[in-house]
């Protein structure tokens, strides 16, 4: 006789086992996500480690703009939708195919590692177990431990027939990560709206307004237009000033403190986390890192940007210390080129 109870019990055990494996998979995935976040070189928010992981997350849970079931569709009008959701989904689709890196919600298209010398001041802020030698034989900039390349630079001066040691410093060779090309979360607007508008208006002016004009007018228009395109590229494709991760506040040389302190040592000022709001470093919970006083966490890019001003959707990225000059040039050239285009299109053969 067929034992229904026995088979139902086996089926239930199978479902329970599958559910346990799935829960374990998601648990390990979340742990890897947290570990990658805490070990990141930059002060970035908690996101999926790679764009491929982000795309898999969308496929598993459904795009935030397109819920997978009808019940969720009924709730879509009652819940707040992230306005950048569509751009993040496009980033996951495109960047996962291109193999682009990820820092927060920013897509890293090109980067390199450069070797630089740094002073080894005996800094003891490194956490226990962090840092040390990597497989390739270098020491990262943010890591502690014993440096591989040390050099004592000693200066001797002969005054009054005696030798006096002026300075003795230790140098170490560190590997610094340098971002060369990076796109913000609103890159679709940059590539499909801002640039097409510039190219469209410029092409219209080139075919209708430029012919018949004096050579110096044509040259001036060409230089302004090319500089406009270049300034937009330097704004939208360059690092806006992403801050490195600092689990401990860097040392600050305070002359007034050193004068009052007999042992003349470098003090650490850690900002409002310990109640000192005058300190140069602030603690940010979103990135679990210290940041400079003049920086801010961008909720759209999910990174801390030095001298953060705003997030510009027309350029697709945040505006900060490293791209503020290019952005200001871009804004000025937009108005200059627009006025010149209108002038060339309306004057006809008057010049």
From TrEMBL:
Substrates-to-products reaction catalysed: L-cysteinyl-[protein] + hexadecanoyl-CoA = S-hexadecanoyl-L-cysteinyl-[protein] + CoA
Gene Ontology terms, MF aspect: protein-cysteine S-palmitoyltransferase activity
Residue intervals of the Palmitoyltransferase DHHC domain: 281-344
InterPro entries hit by this protein: Palmitoyltrfase_DHHC, PFA4/ZDH16/20/ERF2-like
Record-listed E.C. numbers: 2.3.1.225
PROSITE patterns for the chain: DHHC (PS50216)
Major subcellular site: membrane
Enzyme class: transferase
Subcellular location field: Membrane
GO cellular component, one term: membrane
Record keywords: Acyltransferase, Membrane, Transferase, Transmembrane, Transmembrane helix
Pfam family, one: DHHC
Domain of life: Eukaryota
Record note on domains: The DHHC domain is required for palmitoyltransferase activity.
Family: Belongs to the DHHC palmitoyltransferase family.
The protein's name: Palmitoyltransferase
Source species: Stephanodiscus triporus
